[in-house]
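Re: the request from the purification team.
They wanted to know what the chain is likely to look like in 3D before they choose a buffer screen. I agreed to run a prediction and write the result into the notebook, where they can find it.
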Amino acid sequence: MKYNLAFIGFGTVGQGLANLLWEKRGFLRERYGFEYEVVVISDPLKGSVYNPEGLDLGKLLSLVKETGKVAGYPEGKKGWDSLKSIRESNADIVIEVTYTDIQTGEPAISHIRAALKGKKHVVTTNKGPIALAYRELSELARENGVLLRFEGTVLSGTPSLNLGLEALAGAEIREVRGILNGTTNYILTEMSKGISYEAALKEAQRLGYAEAKPDADVEGWDAVAKIVILANALMGGDVKVADVERKGITGLDISDIEEAREEGKRWKLIARAWGEGDKVKAKVWPEKIGPEDFLANVGGVTNALIVDTDVLGELTMIGPGAGGREAGFALLSDILSIHRLLAG
């Protein structure tokens, strides 16, 4: 089967997927019977271009690398905004990879709503819409007979949601617990070596792990969004961002780290969701944990998630939780899942 793809956003993650699609075009066709054309790219900074017959993805990637823009592509219609690109293009699958706003979810919620109402499948790595409007959007997808996939919203390319929703179908998930933010884990790992919080944060920013304004990571908001997604998608909860008990790592200093080391323990920012009666609850909090806890041994920017089930007990996933290529792979995995479901 052949699909027309629309990129809404073409930053690091969008280009990560585009490079994978370009590199693996022959492999995807031969192994999975999956063929595609990218028909539209719309990005608020890089511009937009639409050609219903398909765009030359290799040429576009080279153009963006050289100029930082897609608007200079020689053919096609230019100047379409995101909503016009979604509603009026001939795309079958919309790839929503604009910036994340955990407070409002916009503009991504509007993008996803428009696509689903237009009976177009959606894949996204954008945490905002799934954390804030999961039930609404999943119901909208069901009503319109299309699919909404969001594997990359939690552990980037490391499969967590698809494992829980598909491979663990039939098992009750009683608790999920893990390290869901690589930036804070890197900072805490560096602090365990005797480096101050300020110096560790500065190095994380230099390496590109932390933003210039790192509040979403160090104050725990990124982990909150991810645990809300896990609680609702895997455990059937109705958890809101405001429901989550939250504390970041900014209150920890070297004396706290040193005290933990003397006790043979380490500080980690732990995100947890669990069933309590007929409700699901969630929390993000720094915890001092010992070596008997697997999470104590997860260092650097690596993420890990422990899923406790009634049938299999605990299962652990560990891997990279960020990166353009890794997040691009999550999108590719979701696109192939849609293809498998539609191809039967």
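For the purification team: The chain has two domains: 2-157+324-343, 165-320.
Please add any questions underneath this entry.
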